[in-house]
Amino acid sequence: MTTTNRQVRLAARPAGEPRDTDWQHVEEPVGEPADGEFLVQVMYLSIDPAMRGWMNAGRSYIRPVEIGEVMRAGAVGRVTASRHPGFAVGDHVSGTFGVQEFCLSDGRGVTKVDPAAAPLPTYLGTLGMSGLTAYFGLIDIGRPEPGQTVVVSGAAGAVGSIVGQIAKILGCRVVGIAGGERKCRMVVEEFGFDAAIDYQSEDVRKALREHAPDGVDVYFDNVGGDILDAVLLRLARGARVVICGAVSQYNSTRPQGPANYMSLLVNRASMTGMVVFDYADRYAEGVARLAEWRAEGRLTSLEDVVPGGVAAFPETLMRLFRGANHGKLVLEVAGGKGTGTVIGEGGSR
Amino acid sequence: MTTTNRQVRLAARPAGEPRDTDWQHVEEPVGEPADGEFLVQVMYLSIDPAMRGWMNAGRSYIRPVEIGEVMRAGAVGRVTASRHPGFAVGDHVSGTFGVQEFCLSDGRGVTKVDPAAAPLPTYLGTLGMSGLTAYFGLIDIGRPEPGQTVVVSGAAGAVGSIVGQIAKILGCRVVGIAGGERKCRMVVEEFGFDAAIDYQSEDVRKALREHAPDGVDVYFDNVGGDILDAVLLRLARGARVVICGAVSQYNSTRPQGPANYMSLLVNRASMTGMVVFDYADRYAEGVARLAEWRAEGRLTSLEDVVPGGVAAFPETLMRLFRGANHGKLVLEVAGGKGTGTVIGEGGSR
């Protein structure tokens, strides 16, 4: 029976791109649940651009990860020991378990998931925070109307791919922006967007003139930088820009502001930031609709599951900033193999 | 009787700051009203930062002034000849009469004003577009609530000084940002703001920590640039940033975007552009409330009336970008003297 819990902790706050020396690989004994607690074996970790922000000091929408603390991460896993009345051994659960192999939990912020209804990594993507971010960001902040043009950056990514698919379901014309031919093909062929713009090989401004001839009514931005500036020049009157992320800027020590922001005035448009955690009391609504669309075959899930366990976390995170992932990036910790050899299964402690 | 109409026309589109060679000084005969028209002798011209934008080519919220065209300007004047049933000789009127001494009009977009109720320049400021911009921008876009903190840049200027006074009337805590000790004193002593920050001598970020300890709920921005960036770092949760102008950037060939725009995400805040012309069907509502507050002594008007006639327009416009004005900048064309010697008075044509 496994007794060691491998972890990745934050060793230093990075300046610019995180380096190996910003992480500390630690092994400690697997904890034992106290009364009211249970032990989760982490199976899959959600790898998110937002993680870069959590590594910084200073006020943000969530407290920073402290130096020496296990890196924060969303995850799915399996309960391997329990002294909690609501969670039994064998239950699959989703929660913020961190970059480690085992996590003790008192159940707060933890939800049960059903591995028969969807593959476990999907509970980190389409049916997890990525899907909910897309759902509430697009519907509540973007407020698209049928027939309007919705543009999404990071269109082949975890959130962007779902945003575009929901916008199609809502009757919009949808244009994705992504890097590289393969991603752009995926955006159109697998996710069903009306068009894709390859920012690596195309002039985004020119391509937007072609694909959004009447202007952009909703722009869902995951990337910031030059792409945000290009879309700002193409806004339709009354457009809504949803600021969900700025992956192009997270490792920059001198972030680039949108020089064309006065287009907000010219077009009487708005730019609004959103954080999915604010919608916690409506997660159930979001997941229900996402699951329904998925069951109807209208929402394609794509998870990019990378092996390697927690030791591979630092390099896996960097894949996001290099745009190397397709769909939701997930790190396998115990994964498929884990399900056969879960420790403590049937145990009584 | 005056027969010559002096005009200032746009000669070239400026790159950066407008220069003398961008203007053409023209004299042409004063026109005669056709049926359904009247002639206005321009008395006061409204000098506005937005004028700089109208000189640029390209799509904006209003069509550009064409090369060779009389420069667009809001103005008040007096009807000196009329073949229009709705406007009589001697009527005082407000409209977009342009940088010229006389303007023919068919009455569209022209409103009568009462020189007995307020000085004529006030109809360009508090009771004109400046007041309406402040009113609708603050109330409709800023949506301040009593007790909230409102920060205004360009606080000693035409729009900013009114924004702050309305915010005080609505029960807010109001902090103004202006350049120089004299303006800051005016902001507090004459306009009644709770505090003023002198961006020329103070660290704006530090001063905002002091004067907006609980964060900024509404930021009404007239200036852009570094001041916008400083305020973004101080936003309260759910803050509204009203983008009314960016006078610090209008002459820049490489405008500066707000590098701290991700504060919108951190604080779930929004940044929204506004153009007063969109509220045309509610101008009457706005003017009525502004006039009421003014009559009650709760709204101080300050007009900075500069003499010199239309020939002085180019240098007067530059005063705005040098921050040389206090309150509403107005260029006197016929003005006080004009009222005694208006041409065509009592005429019958």
Give a short summary of the structure.
Two copies of one chain form a homodimer. Chain A has 349 residues and is α/β, with parallel strands linked by helices. Chain A has helices at 50-54, 129-142, 158-169, 181-189, 204-211, 225-232, 263-266, 283-295, 313-321, 335-340, and strands at residues 4-10, 23-29, 38-46, 75-82, 92-95, 102-105, 111-113, 149-153, 173-178, 195-198, 216-221, 235-243, 270-273, 303-306, 328-332.
Task: Label this structure with key terms.
homodimer, disordered C terminus, Quinone Oxidoreductase, Chain A, domain 1, Rossmann fold, alpha/beta, 7-stranded mixed β-sheet, 349 residues, 10 helices
Structure description:
2 copies of one chain form a homodimer. Chain A has 349 residues and is α/β, with parallel strands linked by helices. Chain A has 2 domains: 4-125 and 303-340, Alpha-Beta Complex (Quinone Oxidoreductase, Chain A, domain 1); 129-279 and 287-293, 3-Layer(aba) Sandwich (Rossmann fold). In chain A, 25% of the residues lie in helices and 24% in strands. The first copy, chain A, has helices at 50-54, 129-142, 158-169, 181-189, 204-211, 225-232, 263-266, 283-295, 313-321, 335-340, and strands at residues 4-10, 23-29, 38-46, 75-82, 92-95, 102-105, 111-113, 149-153, 173-178, 195-198, 216-221, 235-243, 270-273, 303-306, 328-332. In chain A, the strands form 3 sheets. In chain A, strands 3, 4, 5, 6, 7, 14 and 15 form a 7-stranded mixed beta sheet that branches. In chain A, strands 10-9-8-11-12-13 form a 6-stranded parallel beta sheet, with helices on both faces. A two-stranded antiparallel sheet of chain A has the order 1-2. In chain A, strand 9, helix 4 and strand 10 form a beta-alpha-beta unit. The longest helix of chain A is centred in the middle third of the chain and has 14 residues, at 129-142. Chain A is globular and about 60 Å long. The two termini of chain A are 14 Å apart. In chain A, 54% of the residues are buried. The model of chain A is unreliable at 337-349 (pLDDT under 50). Chain A binds chain B through residues 59-61, 224, 229, 243-246, 249, 254-275, 278, and chain B through 59-61, 224, 229, 243-246, 249, 254-275, 278. Strand 13 (270-273) of chain A pairs antiparallel with strand 13 of chain B, so a sheet runs across the interface.
